[in-house]
Amino acid sequence: MAVPPPTTPDHSGEPVFRLHEGGKMEIAATVGLANRDDLSLAYTPGVAQVCEAIAANQHLVNDYTWVGNTVAVVTDGSAVLGLGNIGPRAAMPVMEGKAVLFKQFGGVDAVPICLDTQDPDEIVKTVVALAPSFGGINLEDISAPRCFEIEDRLKEELDIPVFHDDQHGTAVVALAAFENALTLTGRLNETTRVVVSGAGAAGVAVTRMLLASGVRDIAVVDRAGVLHSSRDDLHPAKRALAEITADVTGRKGSIAEVFPGADVYIGVSGGTVPEEVVATMAPEAIIFAMANPHPEVAVPLAHKYARVVATGRSDFPNQINNVLAFPGIFRGAFDVRARAITEGMKLAAAQALAALVGNDLSEDYVIPSPFDPRVAPAVAAAVAEAARRDGVAKKHV
Q: Do 204 and 243 form a contact (C-beta atoms < 8 A)?
């Protein structure tokens, strides 16, 4: 007996579905085609001259096509938001949204590409084959640890920026808020104790950015406790992180064992920290509970024990939102035609974000709003200058 197709629910009356109906983006021409002369310039025979020029000098593709201002937003649908492995089709609304944010906040054109494979070899091969059509690659919502391998291999094979936003965008914004929170509470990077909950893409990148900023005492915790090399269940990315964190400080055990006296908690795990554990933190603590939609420490509870509280949500102050980073980072990279995004460029982006807060620094304002019009230009300028400094800029005008 044939199985009937599933019944499709009627979402037509729901505002969020109405907004998404037909998708959130379209392709639009930048030139007019009003007559035969226009057509002869935009297409045959005139276009042949541009093709021949690019064939003779490949770099001209950035001047005479969309390539120099267009990024591919690539996912395999394996780690979408907090929804998990929902596949490439269900990931498309998020990738469209990302593309809209690129355009709105950075003036960068973006194309969502959802791949129907979760094999790292196939993903790398496909992205490399697509790369001539784009000026940069933004990897999105690819599960760890595969995301580390995929990004590293693409960086080796391509001479355009490759950026896994779940890692580096989160890390840039978190570091900016972290630096301002330390200033507000009178702390120094080198003497601040940090607990990072979550050792996936975001946790690894946040930890490495904090270390690069001068933090020395970080305990990274996953479901089995603190990462340290004596554990036999660590994949290479976690083991490498253990070697530069707990192996240095000697910290081991559960999250409850490393919380007492901690100055800062950064949650990128989606778990829950009990109140009796949160209560053991140092006075004037800093809590960044960034899981969405449910922070690891509920906001009222966090305020009970911390002076500065940040989340990933837009309905509370101090939102750690990647949109503060990635549009400006790619805008700056494209402006100087950078061949990569370096650690120096990411640190420069974080410093630019932190500096925008300025004298308005307060418990409820350690990071700018995504709608602050200064954000993308400031980040872009800092990233472009860092690209020149780091020797990856192809354009120096």
A: no
Beta bridge pairs of residue 136:
71
Single out the catalytic residue among 43, 103, 304, 394: 43
User: Is residue 85 scored above 70 in pLDDT?
Assistant: yes
Split at pLDDT 50, 70, 90, the class of 20 is: confident
Amino acid at 328: G
Rounded average pLDDT over 73-80 = 95
Cα–Cα dist 163/353, whole Å: 18
Determine contact, residues 375/105, Cβ cutoff 8 Å: yes
Longest CA pairwise span in the chain (Å): 75
Angstrom distances, CA of residue 348 to CA of 162, 245, 357, 391: 17, 23, 15, 14
Cα 17 from Cα 20, distance rounded (Å): 5
Which SS3 state, helix, strand or coil, does residue 9 take? coil
**Is residue 305 among the annotated active site residues?**
no
Contact 51, 42 (CB under 8 A): no
Whole-number Å distance between alpha carbons of 225 and 18:
44
**Segment 169-228, tens digit of pLDDT:** 999 999 999 999 999 999 999 999 999 999 888 899 999 999 999 999 999 998 888 999
Q: What CA–CA distance (Å, rounded) separates 377 from 105?
A: 9
What is the C-alpha separation between 330 and 54, in angstroms, rounded?
23
Catalytic residue (one of 64, 98, 305, 365): 98
* ∠ CA 46-52-53, rounded to 5°: 95
pLDDT one-digit tens code per residue, 114-127: 999 999 999 999 99
Q: Which amino acid is at 368?
A: P
Q: What is the pLDDT of residue 397?
A: 59
pTM above 0.85, yes or no: yes
Whether a cis peptide bond, with omega within 30° of 0, leads into 327 is no
Tell me the two tokens of residue 70.
Answer: 């267009």
Quick check: is 43 catalytic?
Answer: yes
Cα 77 from Cα 364, distance rounded (Å): 34
